[in-house]
Specification:
Largest sheet: 8 strands, mixed
Helix content: 25-40%
Number of helices: 11
Order of helices and strands: EEEEEEEHEEHEHEHEHEEEEHHHHHH
Strand content: 15-25%
Oligomer: single chain
Distance between the termini: 50 Å
Number of strands: 16
């Protein structure tokens, strides 16, 4: 077997088992792999872990459904979706550091913004991972004291919505990351919001590195939908998923996760949207469909009115100025051709996504007769995102 199969279907249904198999990899010596065998109707599904770490792009998942939130792809390559408004409880994202937990939360938050949801953000890690999304938040908090104000504001919103006749109002997504750093009073307030917020179209999405004594039992009960990445041990895997032999401790990281809803766990690969604490260009292009709240447009970084020429609007107004800024900031041996940047911007405006590295290289080969380096391709994509709204 040279190509790693996504799933094999056999006959006769049985329960879940984990068995060792011999997998001959063409690049390495044969090794033992553990596979997960699950019952699916009249078939057995044999889930064989990938030998590499899959990187999934947004355009591979999005199919244009209005209400559904796309989590990613399953082992067959089919999109996995969840309707957050139809869920009867909050969602808890669990995973060790570096396994894609914040990336998955950011991906769901981006979709909520694109769908017109109101966005409230609490990140007790300091907000470094949310630099590109905080401008879309109606309220944000990076300390426990600030978190109290955000939770109180959302509670008032829920009380106001539940106390009057139903009327069209945008759904609300409250993101709370990291639960381990929150005091018990805030955890209980979050759990209460996940219950009373259902009728007010308020949904809670929280993240934590693990579930233990530091996380309130009330949170575990009321945020019962789980998106679980790799954890440290089988014990933590059972705590996070509530399923024995779930295999969460053997996941590959980088967005390889288990979705636990009303049924057996579904293995899902979430799209890669966050790297080095910033959103990738593909995510920024997709996020341009969202609208900033009025309060965010009026305030600056310190809550004051944003001055003219702020960092948000530092992108150049024409290609020549952009190229000068690029080459002054990055010591490139060769300037990025203006025609290539212009063509990339036109592609983004027409298709709503960024051209791949291979397509940029093909354009350059056709016109210049030589390949363009990977760092220069990356710069073309980054600056095309900045210039999209300027031309």
């Amino acid at each position: 077997v040279r190509d790693l199969p996504r799933a094999l279907k056999l006959a006769a249904p049985i329960g879940m088992h984990v068995v060792p198999v011999l997998y001959p990899d063409a690049r390495r010596a044969p090794q033992d792999f553990e596979v997960r065998v699950t019952q699916a109707g009249a078939f057995l599904e044999v889930d064989i872990p990938r030998a590499d770490r899959q990187v999934l792009r947004i355009r591979d998942v999005i199919r244009g459904v209005e209400r559904a939130f796309w989590l990613g792809q399953d082992v067959r390559g089919q999109p996995v979706a969840a309707d957050l408004l139809a869920l009867t409880a909050g969602v808890l994202v669990v995973g060790s550091s570096g396994t894609g937990k914040t990336n998955a939360i950011a991906w769901l938050a981006i979709q909520a913004l694109v769908k017109g949801w109101a966005f409230y953000l609490v990140d007790l890690k300091g907000g470094q991972d949310w630099a590109d999304l905080e401008r879309y938040a109606r309220m944000r908090a990076y300390t426990p004291s600030e978190a109290d104000h955000v939770l109180a504001a959302v509670q008032e919103l829920v009380a106001a919505r539940n106390g009057r006749q139903a009327e069209p109002t945008p759904p609300v997504l409250l993101v709370f990351d990291e639960l381990l750093l929150a005091p018990e009073s805030q955890q209980k307030a979050l759990a209460r919001l996940s219950v009373v917020g259902r009728s007010a179209r308020v949904r809670v999405l929280a993240g934590t590195q693990r579930l233990g004594n530091s996380v309130s039992s009330v949170v575990k009960q009321n945020l019962r939908y789980r998106l679980v990445g790799r954890v440290a041990s089988r014990t933590e895997a059972y705590e996070a998923t509530g399923v024995r032999a779930s295999g969460a401790e053997r996941l590959l990281g980088r967005g390889d996760m288990l979705w636990i809803a009303d049924g057996p766990p579904v293995r899902v690969q979430t799209p890669h949207v966050l790297a080095d604490h910033r959103l990738l260009p593909e995510a920024l292009v997709y996020l341009r469909r969202a609208r900033e709240p009025e309060c965010a447009r009026e305030r600056g970084e310190d809550g004051e009115a944003a001055p003219a020429g702020s960092e948000r609007d530092e992108a150049a107004s024409d290609f020549e100025t952009a190229l000068q800024a690029m080459n002054s900031r990055h010591s490139l041996a060769k300037a990025v051709p203006p025609w290539l940047l212009a063509r990339t911007v036109a592609y983004v405006q027409r298709y709503g996504t960024l051209p791949s590295f291979d397509l940029i290289n093909r354009w350059h080969m056709e016109r210049e007769g030589e390949q363009i380096s990977v760092p220069r391709r990356r710069l073309v994509r980054e600056w095309a995102v900045r210039l999209t709204d300027k031309v």
